[in-house]
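Please review this pair:
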Amino acid sequence: MPIALAADPHSLSFVGFLVALLSILLGAKLLGELAARLGQPAVLGELVAGLILGPHALGLVPDHAFLHLLAGFGVLLLLFEIGLETDLDQLLRAGQPALRVALAGVVLPYLGGHLFAAALGLEGLAPVIVGATLTATSVGITARVLADLGRLSTPEANIILGAAVVDDILGIVILSLVERIGEAGRVSAGVVAWSLIAAFGFLALALLAGRWLAPALVALVGRMRARGSLIVYSLAFALALGALADFSGSAPLIGALAAGLLLARTHRGPEIEEQIRPVADVFTPVFFVSVGAAVDLGRLSPLRAENFPTLALAAGLVVVAVLGKLAAGFVAGRVNRLAVGAGMVPRGEVGLIFAGVGLGTGALDASLFGALVAVVLVTTFATPPLLRRLFQRETGRGGAPPDRVAGAPPRGVDSWRPPAAGGEPRPEP
């Protein structure tokens, strides 16, 4: 029986909040550690923690507005951290193959997911969000597998990782579009056009204006003596850009991403990144646990006949999700194109963000949300063995032996650091 934290499920006492936060943090870290030891990304453990602790199971993490606000702050920190970890110059030098794969890896899964959902009779925003969720790529999962195989300096890896970072930025723009369409309550050419203009326009203006604003902020903070000035003002910069993005008609996540990209270019970028990581370690798991908590496993049980439509939907979306990314690999050029496509398959934490936004806007019901979470799980778990098999088959046919990259991230690393100017991936600090 679920443990009640308050008489009213929509209220939350201070003690109830403490119990919920304690459950989130401990559950996320313990199951994240277990996932890492099993060779999987920690985010999957955090998702499972939500499944166990949520209102549909133990009830230690209730469906409450304040926890949703904490989860929103956590995902904003995640995007800020991604921006800080991204080398904008290297991103621009990723090359045409990476850009082609990124664009195909967004367009093909989106069209496949949208058309599949529409063919099943889903209406309104549901096909849009289903398609948008399938566009995601989780760079950390693929990067860890490539490191394990000693393949981080191969042409395939350069294309995969460059395209995945571009995918992240395109995905956030699409996420902004989905949020705005959700607020408007309808899909129209005007809403789509304005959302795209707002997202790209704000990002371009923020990056241009921030080229002098971010260094000026860092220089000003450098003259301050109060403890924690660097991290506080850096976070305030991200929050300010997030609010400005919302006021301009874009999404706060776009602003947080832009803030990270700008501060990463300053001479104190690595220091800011190091200081923001512990803050993100506390709040980002709240988002992933809350996503897992929203899933009702009873709706995904194959033992119930009423769940067959949801399971069939999930199975169909898995096929569309995998084929869409594999097809994108075939525009990569003269490389192992199937391996490139396979490297783009995992949806990971990015797909969870899309599904969570869809649930929050009311565009997805519990069954469709559960089906999308199932797609994220399957594609994430399936990628490591698939990549290993493809690269091992290539080596067995006389291909080049695996490289040994100095400073390659160890097994269990969840985030990939973009290559530095010399082309080699930056090791974890």
User: Anything to note?
Assistant: Residues 1-9, 403-429 have pLDDT under 50 and may be disordered. The longest helix spans residues 189-222. The two ends are 44 Å apart (CA to CA).
